[in-house]
Write a structure and sequence with these properties.
Layout: E1 4-5, E2 9-14, E3 18-23, H1 34-49, E4 55-60, E5 64-66, H2 95-115, E6 119-124, E7 127-129, H3 130-138, E8 141-145, E9 149-151, H4 165-173, H5 175-183, E10 187-189, H6 190-196, E11 201-203, H7 208-220, H8 224-237, H9 242-256, H10 260-270, H11 279-282
Parallel strand pairs: 3-4, 4-6, 5-7, 6-8, 7-9, 8-11
Antiparallel strand pairs: 1-2, 2-3, 9-10
Length: 284
């Protein structure tokens, strides 16, 4: 997986196969552009295909995780880096342009996050609004600093949560709470988000990255094949009937039960020792 500075974010590889993606335009509150989104989709494709990557962590620099789309039109700041994919023409100049821009430039980012087999964590260091908020919701785990605030609030501008926020919120909170959250344009504190089930944990700001990396290492050291299959099965189950989900997980179990990690898990149980999973990865 390629590391370094890209257009609006930096990528580094930490220990245990953890890929850390940091939004690095704090002077813009890490606002997103379609350039950033396309480069980030390419980054996630690389993470999917790279067996050395086990967990992906997103975080921001400065006061924001990401305050949403940057609509100022200003050029990127001093930390702007290399380009991953070429620019393409188009925009929101007419209804067709808006539809195509959303379907092919903006929405693919959250799809790429959700479709990634490797587990993902959003470390919410500060403000997460609109696009930044929906990206965090697309992640599998969310840990928030006590200083974080988050919401969609698109109706304040007469706009819609057009990158999948309405779907992701409904999955997490149900229709009733999502109706209240979006229609009343709510932006909540980290503790408020915890009460609503939007984040898994709230920690002091100084502890955010330590706690996030502890969780990332825990996930990275688990049986990767079974965990990735279980992630997909959980998201599938949210949209399937019970009968469909039973058949779906049976087909995955036919693979996982015969994987070396399962053999190691049973052997470690009999020998009364901690299992050592993922040798298949370490031998590559």
């Amino acid at each position: 997986m390629q590391t370094g500075n890209f257009r609006g974010f930096a990528v580094s590889i930490q220990d245990s196969g953890i890929s850390l993606i940091t939004f690095n335009q704090p002077e813009r509150l890490n606002g997103m552009t379609h350039h950033l989104k396309r480069d980030l989709v390419e980054t996630l494709i690389q993470a999917q295909m790279d067996d050395t990557v086990r967990v992906v962590v997103f975080t921001g620099s400065g006061r924001a995780f990401s305050a949403g789309d940057d609509i100022t039109g200003r050029p990127l700041g001093q930390h702007a880096g290399q380009t991953r994919v070429p620019d393409i023409p188009g925009g929101h100049h007419n209804p067709t342009g808006t539809y195509n821009g959303l379907r092919h430039l903006s929405q693919p980012l959250n799809q790429a996050v959700r479709n990634l087999d490797k587990l993902t964590i959003a470390a919410l260091n500060g403000v997460a609004i609109q696009t930044g908020f929906s990206l965090a919701l697309a992640c599998d785990f969310r840990i928030a600093s006590e200083e974080a605030r988050m919401g969609s609030a698109t109706l304040r501008f007469g706009l819609l949560p057009d990158e999948g926020g309405q779907f992701l919120l409904t999955q997490l909170m149900g229709v009733g709470k999502t109706m209240d959250f979006l229609m009343r344009k709510r932006i909540v504190s980290a503790r408020g988000a915890l009460d609503l089930g939007l984040v898994h944990e709230v920690v002091p700001p100084a502890e955010l990255m330590d706690r996030t990396m502890d969780l990332a290492r825990e996930l990275a050291n688990g049986p990767q094949v079974a965990m990735r299959m279980l992630k997909r099965s959980l998201y599938n189950a949210a949209e399937m009937t019970f009968a469909q989900s039973l058949d779906e997980i049976a087909s995955k179990t036919a693979v996982s039960d015969h994987h070396p990690d399962a053999e190691e898990g049973m052997r470690a149980f009999r020998e009364k020792r901690p299992p050592r999973f993922n040798r298949w990865l370490e031998e590559k």
